[in-house]
Design a protein that fits this description.
By secondary structure, the protein is an all-alpha fold. It contains 6 helices and no strands.
Length: 140
C-alpha cells in the first residue's frame, strides 16, 4: 500500500485489472459504444489505454494517485456522445462490476461509475451550451 491509499475490503489491484479489461472487452464488442471507442483509440494504443484506465480506477477506488491524466477532456471533444452512450457505458460497467466483485462490494464500485458518468454528462451539457436543468440521473 502506498501513502494515501485507502484500503477497501474486496477491492484490490487484481480485481480492478479484471474490471477494466472485462469492461473494455464488452465495450469493444458493443454495437452502440464500440464504434465510438474504436474510432478514438487505435488498435496499437489499446494496451496503453487499458493501463491508463487501470491506473484511473485504482486512483478512484483505492486513492492510489496512480492516475495523473484529465479524463474529461477527450469526452468534451466528441460531439456524438449522448445519454444513450452513457446509458450503455453504465449498463456494461454495472454488469462487469457485478461479475468481478462480491455482491456487497459491486454497488460501491458502481456508485463511483454512476457519479463519474453524471459529472461527465453535466460537463458536456455545459460545454455544449445546452440547458442542464432537465438533466436527470440515468436509469439503473
Amino acid at each position: 500500500m502506498t501513502l494515501g491509499t485507502i484500503p477497501r475490503p474486496g477491492i484490490d489491484e487484481e480485481r480492478i485489472h479484471a474490471l477494466v479489461h472485462g469492461f473494455y472487452a464488452a465495450v469493444r464488442a458493443d454495437d452502440l459504444i464500440g464504434p465510438v471507442f474504436l474510432g478514438q483509440i487505435q488498435p496499437e494504443r489499446w494496451p496503453v489505454h487499458l493501463d491508463k484506465m487501470c491506473a484511473f480506477w485504482s486512483s478512484v477506488l483505492l486513492r492510489t494517485s496512480r492516475y495523473d491524466g484529465r479524463p474529461l477532456r477527450p469526452h468534451l471533444l466528441m460531439p456524438e456522445l449522448s445519454d444513450a452512450h452513457f446509458g450503455r457505458w453504465l449498463a456494461l460497467f454495472r454488469a462487469t462490476a457485478r461479475q468481478v466483485f462480491e455482491p456487497d462490494v459491486a454497488p460501491v464500485v458502481i456508485n463511483f461509475a454512476e457519479r463519474i458518468a453524471q459529472s461527465f454528462r453535466m460537463s458536456i451539457v455545459f460545454h455544449r451550451g445546452e440547458d442542464a436543468a432537465g438533466l436527470k440521473p440515468l436509469p439503473a
